[in-house]
Amino acid sequence: MCFILGLTGGISSGKSAVSQCFKEKGIPVVDADAIAREVVKPRTPGLSKIIAHFGSSILTEERELDRKKLGEIIFNDDKEREILDNILRQEIELKMDEELERLKREHHELIIMDIPLLFEASYESKCDEIMTVFVSQKTQLSRLTLRDNISEEQALARINSQMPIVDKALLSDVIIDNEGTIENTKLQVDRWLDIFKETRFSN
């Protein structure tokens, strides 16, 4: 029977780095962010719905979604962010479920569900365990301002648009401390995999 590990974390917590650790070991990952990008490509129903609500001003000259412009709207308006979430949630979840079922048919022992808004989307019931990648808000702010070249105020608005990372950690089965080096993070992932394999073998 396939084991489903839900992987989540806050913005700029380093969840993608942990996801990459699993990929490097040949473990399949269903990436919600990648799927979210797919459902808003040009000429998709998802993008059409976004344009219908937010207008064509959120498009680039190439008629693609301008994520920066859309982000400026939704990270400063809870109501607009909720509308966007409702527009995309069903299509994203449908594609994620399709990918998960495909991987299950391939009889993988372990599948990672990489979902930034795992708890917000109530996806925890589909997972056997939840792993949260944790850092302090100070670290989040520092990494996010540097990564996206934005002000602390803008970064804080994006952080506050998500469920607090502390709350996610409290609801999780496993916590990966990503305050240190990538080597330390990889060691934690390796340790979890060792325990997982030992437990599966003993059962």
Automatic annotation (TrEMBL):
Belongs to the CoaE family. Catalyzes the phosphorylation of the 3'-hydroxyl group of dephosphocoenzyme A to form coenzyme A. It is an enzyme of class 2 (transferase). This is Dephospho-CoA kinase. PANTHER family: BIFUNCTIONAL COENZYME A SYNTHASE-RELATED, DEPHOSPHO-COA KINASE-RELATED. Its EC number is 2.7.1.24. One of its GO terms (biological process) is coenzyme A biosynthetic process. One of its GO terms (molecular function) is dephospho-CoA kinase activity. It is found in: Cytoplasm. HAMAP family: Dephospho_CoA_kinase. It holds the Pfam family CoaE. Pathway: Cofactor biosynthesis; coenzyme A biosynthesis; CoA from (R)-pantothenate: step 5/5. One of its GO terms (cellular component) is cytoplasm. Its main location: cytoplasm. CDD domains: DPCK (cd02022). It catalyses: 3'-dephospho-CoA + ATP = ADP + CoA + H(+). ATP binds at residues 12-17. InterPro entries: Depp_CoAkinase, P-loop_NTPase. Keywords: ATP-binding, Coenzyme A biosynthesis, Cytoplasm, Kinase, Nucleotide-binding, Transferase.
